[in-house]
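Researcher: Please predict.
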Amino acid sequence: MDTTSTGADLLRELPDLLPAEHIVSINTPKEDIRSTRAYEWNGWRFRVPPGVFTPGATSRMVHERLLDNRIAVRGLTYAAMGVGLGAEVVAAGVAGAARIYALDVHEPSVRAARQHFEEFVGTDGVLVPVVGDLFDGLPDDTRVDVVTFNPPAVSQRVSDDPDVVRNICEGAGIVTRFFDQIVDRDLLSPGGRVYVALSNTADLRGIVAHAIDRGLLPAVEHRHDWHDGVVTHVFRFTGGNPA
């Protein structure tokens, strides 16, 4: 699916925010984040250290698209925002990305991503691990061709655990700051693309409207209805003229 309607049309087509009670019930963590776990995908077995979340089905929408070239990164500079245990950097490395930034505010996640990249890809000099809030750890002159982000944009607080909040329910603000930094720092190379996975557990219209206001042009790369009220979109944003 690739819907390229105007920004106003796209905003009208987006589903309403789900009721708060439903959002909490489907996003309350089912795993023990304090334990050491394992995650298997595409024949790879990843170690999941304490404090690092196991990727879910929405994350796999991004990982699979990197691996099969629907999100094309071969020969390009790619930034994985909120890299977690690193499945997307492994996929991008196998897909032939020339340079990969593994970005996360959580140092154990960045360390796990680096270890998994070295184990499953092993290409010297391609991966650049970066610990920091959003893009804060990158040099000012950095330019990237492709960015992906499955943000913790759930609109309701589902836990008081800071690791759970960091991974699930920071809210819309983390995504609007993400877009602000992309524009203010002029991070995208000419023709650069930003892919963001969001569902109607977040303020979809507010987030997408903010991106449009900042001059980013939205399209729907993929839409998935989980038949439980949740509808997930993988959006593609490209540079445009400021509104």
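Model: Residues 7-239 form a domain with the Rossmann fold fold (CATH 3.40.50.150).
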